[in-house]
Amino acid sequence: MSDVQTSTPAEPEAAAQQPVKPIAWPAGLAGVVLVIVGSFLSWSYDGSILNDLSINLYPGGLQILAIIGALLALVLLLAERGPLTALGSWLDATLGLRALGLGLTLYMVLVVVAITVESDGLINVNPGAYISLAGAVLILVSAWMLPLRQLRDLSQARLPGWVEILAISVMMAAILFGAAYALDLTDAWSFILCLLFYATVIGALFRTGVMTWFGHVAQRHKKVLTLAAFVVAFLFPFTQQGSDANMSIACQVLIFAATAMGLNIVVGLAGLLDLGYIAFLGSGAYVAAMLSNSAFSTVDWHPPFLIVMLIGAGVAATLGLIIGSPTLRVSGDYLAIVTLGFGEIFRLSMFNLDGINGPLLTNGPNGIPGIPDLQIGNFNFGDEHTIAGLELGRFSNYYFLLLLLIAFVILVFARLNDSRIGRGWVAIREDEKAAEAMGVNVFGLKVLAFVVGAFLAGLAGTIKAHQDVAVSPDQFIFLESAFLLAAVVLGGMGTIAGVLLGATILKLLPEKLRFFSEYRLMMFGLLLVLMMRFRPEGLVASRRRQLEFHEEDEQLAVEVEEEHLAVEEAK
Description:
Layout: H1 2-6, H2 12-17, H3 24-39, H4 61-80, H5 85-88, H6 93-118, H7 127-145, H8 161-183, H9 188-208, H10 210-220, H11 222-235, H12 244-269, H13 278-290, H14 305-327, H15 333-352, E1 375-376, E2 379-380, E3 385-387, E4 390-392, H16 394-417, H17 420-430, H18 432-437, H19 442-468, H20 478-491, H21 497-512, H22 520-534, H23 543-570
Antiparallel strand pairs: 1-2, 3-4
Helix pairs in contact: 3-4, 3-7, 4-6, 4-9, 6-7, 6-9, 8-11, 12-16, 12-19, 12-20, 12-21, 13-14, 13-15, 13-19, 14-19, 16-19, 17-19, 20-21
């Protein structure tokens, strides 16, 4: 990342030759003032849209975000010329200001569009919105007039340990409150605008080099970062004011993330394309449903839930062994087709185990409804609890249980990734023939990847059955397997943070963007296309894969240069 700072679009020589325009810095300050002033004025004539932006001198949520963006632009301007120039010698303030100006401009344009669409007319956009839009454009123009300069290597920037730990705490707190605010938005337009603002701030932090420095800090304090992340996750339900809707989404995200982490072993480490992975989650869910106290359960045995979890995970692992043993003799597209068929076989089998076409186990297409809430000891997960005056509902209880599950899944993945087995999986993924020649038990490790991944998915399925209250075959269609695979690819194959981020994006956005329900799949496909074009290694790429893509790019550049020289010689 530090290399990016010194090889920005303007090289040091070009930056030194770039003329300095005296009007650039004052124009940026004027833009900041306009954004803030416009945000204190009314943006919309209709107060019923976008959480009411119609009151003068009383900014709403989206207006406060615009003010925060303007203040960040002010900090970068003062780092360029002013009392914060010492900070500017380390940060690329100009590139950060360009990203921030572009993001604020798009943000204000989308605000105008949202008000126009929601209130049926451009006439309902009040002058405050136009003033803030003019300020954002002025910030963007001034940023492009400011010169670039050579920066220091941020990987060498070290602060006292307590300062770096404080930076981690501040970052985690910002993530907690940012997530709480975004989830609290019920309006689709407001949610989209909030996401755009977050993307703008994150992009600006990357361009300035702050995230580069934070990445090195995180590497130096891995344990602190991990602990802070789980503290933030633990505190999240206390920010929702008892909202079952948001906590239900959070539970679905954790189940999806735990399942995707298991698939990450198969796809991300071993490099095996599995298109039927949802069957393992379904097998765990059906085992929990059949062994539950539901009036529709088909097995007259109701062991403690810990036993149910082990049985569900064991059944899923057995299915992984059954499907893995004969099919892992093939690879590539053939393996994808076989696993796709396995996923459909599982779903159709659940339809047919109805007592008519087969044994009575799953009640056929009706599934198993009425699954009671979990009860471990005297603690019933369906009851509401009050802690420190804050109400925690049913979904909050399951959320804490799923946090323990995701912690266990992450621990298993991390240990396997750093072990000899993990290195064997990576060797198989890179070159199966070379790995076999070096003595790696290719077939055995492939089967083990399927078994371990299925085991983790089965664990998540047992909790999912009780959290969803019902299980039916329609919950485990091919599209769910495709989304799981997309979460791994989008986030970054072989990484922990990447898969968690990818799972959160793909599970959260469809729930919050129901306003665009007809276009959700189109947006999802467009997102994947853009990712494959501009960042094929994923949002959070592993170091190994990042180096691979950089080497491929360098090799391509060398080949293009050689072809160019050959053409010149031929002429």
